[in-house]
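User: Could you walk me through two proteins back to back? I'd like the raw sequence and the structure tokens for each, with a short line separating them so I can tell where one ends and the next begins.

Assistant: Of course. Protein one, sequence then structure:
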Amino acid sequence: MVRRTKEEALETRNRILDAAEHVFFEKGVSRSSLADIANAAGVTRGAIYWHFENKGDLFTAMFDRVILPLDELKAASVDPGEPDPLGRIKDLCVLCLRDTATDARRRRVFEILFLKCEFVEEMGPVMARHQDNMREGLMRIEEGLRNAMSKGQLPTDLDAARAARVLHSFITGTLHDMAILPDMFDVAKNAQRHVEAMLDALTSSPALRTGTDLATDSATDPATDD
């Protein structure tokens, strides 16, 4: 009986998340109410509050559902015992892009994030969580790059922090472009080549070496933190 209750609770939670995904996609996050989501899920608002504190908490859980499958590759890329950390970074980037291009759920969620989410006051905690996720993502990428450097897969004078920001911008920029012009980017077909080109740039770009003269950057970007 207890197992059945837990299974039912999980089923209800997933139904709410599915409904939220579709309602947010159709109406945008700020115009969607918990009542809209409850109606779409066939549950009461009380059922939503049983599983989620508020709309922001629900949004975060919906987003985490498509991000968590990537955690295994993230962990492998930073594992000192991993013999091919650069390969794991490539797998992570390819999987992220290719899955978004081919998986309807992942594509919807990223389109909601990039195009249909206003970070207004009620979404303040979501914005803070998104910022934390970005910081953690950048840190993990940098750790993975340093791991690859230690294995001789990348130049020892690579500016890992700057390279991590460049790689992160490439991935998020591609996802954003895919959401705006889905017919123009055949990411499913070309994801691996695009990622390999980006990793080649990390290996060969003089601008990504430590000791690069940053005078130009500093003159044009007072807020630079490099």
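----
Protein two, same layout:
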Amino acid sequence: MALIRIDQPDDPRIAGFRDIRERDLTGRLGMFLAEGEVVLNVLMSDRSLCRPVALLLDIKRVDGLAGLLARVTEGTPVYVASQAVLDRIAGFHLHRGILALGEKPPARTLEACLEGMGPDAVVVAACGIGNHDNMGGVLRNAAAFGAGAVLLDAHCCDPFYRKAIRVSVGAALRTPMATGLDPLAMVERLKAAGFRVLALTPGASDPLDAMPRGGKIAIVLGPEGPGLSAALLERCQPVGIPMSGGFDSLNVSVACGIALHHFTRRA
């Protein structure tokens, strides 16, 4: 595999990597940027739903990435640059020295995500999750506990934002997802598909640990602070996680992990 040396930050061949933070805000027309060795390993794995388009590496990292680079498919350019040039391309100090430009997977419908799921499938339905750290944590939990899909309403942030991908440790690249959904219609369609739809909310009277396992289950998550809307809660079974000392809330990704562990754990 031939490495392509980049000596000037304005080289047109690496335009997709330039000024990362500014372009993160405006989108990349079906592309995303991933950073770090762990995420790159997921992108290059058989589990990835995304296609790598190009790599840009600190030239000092190349020898240590020999095994990973051996998996790069023919036709995928691998650019290398000094740390100084890499930082000028990115627009900030890129201490990991590893970037990949990838192509998002084709959009999926909710029905396509649910197709073929078994009788005990568990999915996550997120509504209004606007924080990229929380989004990454939700996706990481979904992968760790074997959720069949993550369904995102139209008010969620982009799961392929660079920070969300990084926090998910690459789970965003391998998790079946449907995005841009109407939250109320999503719940009704899950019910029609045979799912028991449970909404995590601090005000619920039914505790999570009393919920029976088994059957198709959808865990609905809302944003921290405002939580899920009353209209949405009316269509779900509200479920809470009991806490101590009068404390009544958890980070949404933590609550997601606790609920997924409960419903995916087998006696």
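The chain has a mean pLDDT of 93.

Let me know if you want the two compared in more detail.
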